[in-house]
């Protein structure tokens, strides 16, 4: 069956930028990755097809050859120099695609030699109290670690990787198509410069195995959503003796039932009765340190904001604690009995004709009259 156009596979135009190619490939890889679709042959084929298309179009030389000669310019079976999907397994591709999410990469330049392990990202959910006061939590993180039986070499104990006979250990090969010469990753060793003739039984030649690590994370006081804690050397193990990547713990603070946070300040809404608003009084309001008394002056209106200094959050990067802003919301009484209604009727009657009791309403009605030209 004839191969589909690589641009069509990724769903992009021929003049698309490298960023557009990566974005399109990432979307398809996430959708069709075998780990997400373990029993789907169609997803597996779509994943391979997308990987092959991106492997060609993301390389400037291969893309130029493909644009000029089509599949013949990059496919060895058609006389070209392309690698296609080749011998890469799903775990290799997964790392290539998604390592960008973790702010790192496999390191190296595609040639043989030690490569740094990928950085990892872990989202840590905290409640507001934990974020403000700080805490220590244990997390369980999936990662890749060096295979112990082969000590990360990928070769069975007692043997060792050998120099790739195809590229001579360089990791790159040059293919000639007419007058066009393309240098690309060696299809046999995949850029490593070495091949494993007798792979380790534990890691099957990868040199790394999947493992869960339990780590203790000390969260400093004052962190907020989006803050990152770096755990150096707790990411994926490097390849061929390369250094280990880092783990970035990203903080996400859950919504609170009472308080809303904005930087170092906290906000809350305090409901009060209309009698307390009219006559004044003293209320008990919550803070993260306990209850405090809040004095309400007589004639308080809805929306009035009271500031409790120093009752906010001390920022993680230093500086004094913020404030707690309490916004008053005057509640209208409901479910009145007969006597209560009578009292309110008497109260309403007593207010009639005296505009001094409702200064805002008086000003508002005057504005309405001016708007309609009644004044």
Automatic annotation (TrEMBL):
Domain CR-type, residue spans: 134-212
Lineage: Bacteria, Pseudomonadati, Pseudomonadota, Gammaproteobacteria, Pseudomonadales
Record-linked HAMAP family: DnaJ
Name of the gene: dnaJ
Cofactor: Zn(2+)
GO molecular function, one term: heat shock protein binding
Record's protein name: Chaperone protein DnaJ
GO cellular component: cytoplasm
Region feature (Disordered): 30-50
